[in-house]
Amino acid sequence: MKGKVAVIGVGMIKFGELFDKSLENMIQEAYLNCLKNVEKGIDPKEIKAAWFGQWSGGFIGQGAQGGQSLASMIGNLDISCSRIENACPTGGDTFRNACLGVASGVFDVVLALGAEKMRDKPSAESLGGAGGGGGAETGNHPSWMMGQGGPAIQAMHATRQMHELGYTMEDFARVAVKNHHNGSLCPYAHYQFEITVERVLNSPVICWPLHLFDCCPQTDGAAAAIVCRADLAKKYTDKPVYVWGSHLGLDHNQLWDRSSFVSQPSVVRAAKGAFEMAGIEPKDVDFAELHDCFTNTELMDIEDVGFARSGEAAKKLKDGEFDMHGKLPINPSGGLKAHGHPIAATGLGQIFEVVTQLREQADKRQVKLKNGIGLQQNVGGPAFGAAVVNILSRSR
């Protein structure tokens, strides 16, 4: 894929509790924002295919969403369009599939769009009901039926991180503090306020040792990207962003089959494949958007992607290495923790941030670029057994 695919436009809407917007409203707004983002303009008829990320389907009142739903909502029934559902990595995998469609040589210009309406029902009903078909960290799955939803699963990881690696609740809280600071500078973030370690530790316990502010919010949102053949990119923009590596990694979907609770093998596999495709190493990456559905998850992601050895992420965080202006900024958007987690839109929202940063258009949250390389990562599914990593660069 390296050198074959370029991102020429990205678009999203502000994430949040969007009770005033329908799923169709959100999709159309993100799509139009994406078209406007193509610097030199694009005729929508040039888009020949689309991939539609949608996790919840009809389980929370959104109707049975398929590829034809997106095609109808954006007013282009001449395209081919497939729906992607792959748990919390749905957005990142939607982008990956769109890139594969171009890299294969079948299509010249395609669209990847993800959207999710999470807040129209109460949290437990939204996750439980939508999970009935087997989505995200929930679903009609033995772990879920045993009460082991996302917070419980990550609480098990967190307690093991504390036991094996010496991590503390303060270490987890520092992730929230960092990401809320970043989110306060991002106009698209669900939460745009700062917090302190003390506020995190004094917030209600959701599943020990994780507190309320260790957990990302449920959020409504939509985000999109237009990708094309790399050799056509300059027709559309003077600032194309090229896809260097992309990989999907898997692991067991039953907790009792897991060999470790301080690492996520799916993330390790996804990162390994993406870096091999890109022909680079973790040290070459300037910044990353990682899947911090819980604060302890970000620390595992940092280690599993290869940005720190096992047990070292917390110290590097405390030393400021992952701050917005640190050695390796992590989640300059605010991450899922502040930016929000509308499941199918999450990964594409991260792609939006990576592209915006690589174009140096991120305003107050702009990070310093050395090599012009950014990374996006998601993880989720039963037992967090699915992960995707995408690596993008300013250079072809």
Report on this model:
The chain has a single domain (5-143, 215-393), classed as Peroxisomal Thiolase, Chain A, domain 1 (3-Layer(aba) Sandwich). β5 (205-207) and β6 form a beta hairpin. Helices cover 35% and strands 17% of the residues. It is an alpha/beta fold and 396 residues long. The longest helix is centred in the middle third of the chain and has 16 residues, at 150-165. The protein is built from 13 helices and 11 strands. The protein is globular, with a radius of gyration of 19 Å. A 9-stranded mixed sheet has the order 3-2-4-7-1-8-11-10-9, sandwiched between helices. It has a two-stranded antiparallel ribbon with strand order 5-6.
- What letter string, H or E per element, gives the SSE order? EHEHEHEHHHHHEEEEHEHHHHEE
Radius of gyration: 19 Å
Taken together, the total number of domains comes to 1
Shape: globular
Number of helices: 13
> How do the strands line up in the largest sheet?
3-2-4-7-1-8-11-10-9
State the CATH superfamily name.
Thiolase/Chalcone synthase
Q: In angstroms, what separates the terminal alpha carbons?
A: 11 Å
Instruction: Tell how many strands the DSSP assignment holds.
Output: 11
Can you identify the CATH class? Alpha Beta
Main features:
396 residues, alpha/beta, Peroxisomal Thiolase, Chain A, domain 1, 9-stranded mixed sheet, two-stranded antiparallel ribbon, 35% helix
Structure in a nutshell:
The chain is an alpha/beta fold.
Topology (SSEs and partners):
Elements (H helix, E strand, L loop, with lengths): L4 E8 L10 H15 L11 E5 L13 H7 L6 E5 L5 H14 L5 E8 L6 H8 L11 H4 L4 H16 L3 H15 L13 H6 L2 E3 L2 E2 L9 E9 L11 E10 L14 H14 L8 E3 L5 H11 L7 H6 L16 H5 L3 H16 L14 E8 L5 E8 L3
Helix pairs in contact: 3-13, 7-10
